[in-house]
Design goal:
This protein has 388 residues and is mainly beta. The protein is 15% helix and 38% strand. The strands form four sheets. Strands 3-4-5-9-8-7-6 form a seven-stranded antiparallel sheet, sandwiched between helices. Strands 12-13-14-19-17-18 form a six-stranded antiparallel sheet, with no helix packed on it. A five-stranded mixed sheet has the order 11-21-20-15-16, with no helix packed on it. The longest helix has 14 residues. It is globular and about 65 Å long.
Length: 388
């Protein structure tokens, strides 16, 4: 999965978990009082705790489908994730999350993760210089790493800090505009929330961990596990006869996912990876006027051809919609070609860049919208805020 310049942030999507309420939350103990029952959501920082004017972009409980096998093999039981974007600068992105592990396995998970990032060799010409860096001791163990990723023609540094405390594995990942001081401050605030005793995972988080997520909720959307008990609304395939009538592989056929974000923020649905790099005004001779939106697309599977766009448009500052002008747009896949051949068969797992043209008249382009349809009938829409 060759994910361009924010690979660290996207990898961190497997991050997260756990646990205790910081604002009047109730702590529930077992009869023996030797452990405390916690929810991963209560450890991840709220927007008012962030070091800056950050807005919540998305949040959700993690399921096993979000987590790599090595983490599950090392006692992963559940987790929670939040993604923040700084209000004044869309390229300033922070991903915070907590993973809940069994106490007997968390040190093994920590050691494995540290070794993985310390020995990591980039698989892309647009990623380089992965290295472990020094960091203050937080909790029961800490490591930090950084790497360089290429955005356009420029190289930027990305940063991540991980620590464990009792059952909890925390990761804080920041894009190049997020300072080490801010990342450390966030990690220390999270550590203060975690109790100094063994914990037990809440039933809500346990249930969410067993239930595959079908969507990535928008910031204002409450994820299913927090609104109603998952077992009654989205039962696992083994609890109802559903699998016998609608096999799991065909379930996404009627699903529609909407992903929302800003420029320079990679968004993927597990099949396609999309990021908008630039928006530029057209002036020169042959150019048709309007604006060009530069988009990078990456197939994330080798099993099928995924690129089948149904909608490519922008919403301007007057809230009017403009479809892509295909005849004056371009694709780059090693050579420059007209977009009219965009639906040619690309090699799976190949990335390509688009220069999509939109004529918005006197108004500025505000939101880029792309909808892709897959062979099973499911669709995903990317809604990306634009900034000149």
């Amino acid at each position: 999965m060759n994910k361009k310049f924010l690979f660290g942030i996207v990898f961190c999507v497997l991050l997260l978990t756990c646990c205790i309420s910081d604002n009047g939350g109730t702590t529930t103990t077992t009869p023996s009082s030797k452990t405390v029952k916690v929810d991963p959501k209560d450890f991840v920082l709220e927007s008012y705790e962030m070091p800056g004017n950050y807005s919540l972009d998305k949040e959700y409980y993690l399921s096993k489908n979000d987590i790599k096998d090595w983490a599950i093999e090392r006692g992963w039981q559940g987790g929670y994730k939040r993604v923040y974007i700084e209000d004044s600068k869309a390229s300033r992105i922070v991903v915070i999350g907590c993973d809940f592990h069994t106490l007997s396995s968390i040190q093994d998970a920590f050691n494995y993760s540290k070794g993985y990032h310390g020995a990591r060799v980039s698989e892309s010409p647009d990623e380089k210089d992965f290295e472990l860096v020094s960091s203050p001791e937080i909790g029961d163990g800490t490591f930090a790493y950084q790497f360089k990723g290429k955005a356009g023609e420029k190289w930027y540094t990305y940063r991540a800090l991980s620590f464990i405390k009792q059952n909890i594995f925390v990761r804080v990942v920041g894009s190049w505009d997020v300072s080490w001081d801010d990342i450390i401050e966030m990690a220390e605030k999270i550590a203060e929330k975690i109790p100094d005793k063994e914990m037990e995972l809440s039933e809500k988080a346990k249930s969410a961990a067993q239930t595959p997520r079908s969507t990535t909720p928008a910031p204002t959307t409450t994820v299913p596990p927090t609104t109603t008990p998952v077992p009654t609304t989205s039962p696992p395939p083994t609890t109802t006869p559903t699998p016998t009538t609608t096999p799991p592989p065909t379930t996404p056929a009627s699903k529609h996912i909407t992903l929302k974000g800003g420029m320079d923020e990679p968004l993927d649905d597990g099949k396609l990876y999309v990021v908008v790099w630039t928006v530029t005004k057209s002036y020169r001779g042959w150019q048709p006027g309007g604006y060009f939106v530069e988009v990078f697309i990456q197939n994330l599977t080798k099993d099928e051809i995924l690129w089948k766009p149904k909608v490519m448009k922008v919403i301007d500052s007057s809230d009017k919609s403009h479809n892509c002008r295909v005849d004056v747009s371009f694709i780059l896949t090693g050579t420059e070609e007209q977009l009219s051949v965009i639906e040619q068969v690309f090699k799976p797992d190949e990335g390509f860049r688009l220069w999509l043209n939109f004529e918005t008249g006197m108004y500025l382009p505000k939101t880029f919208i792309l909808t892709n349809e897959y062979s099973d009938g499911s669709t995903t829409t990317w809604e990306i805020r634009l900034k000149l």
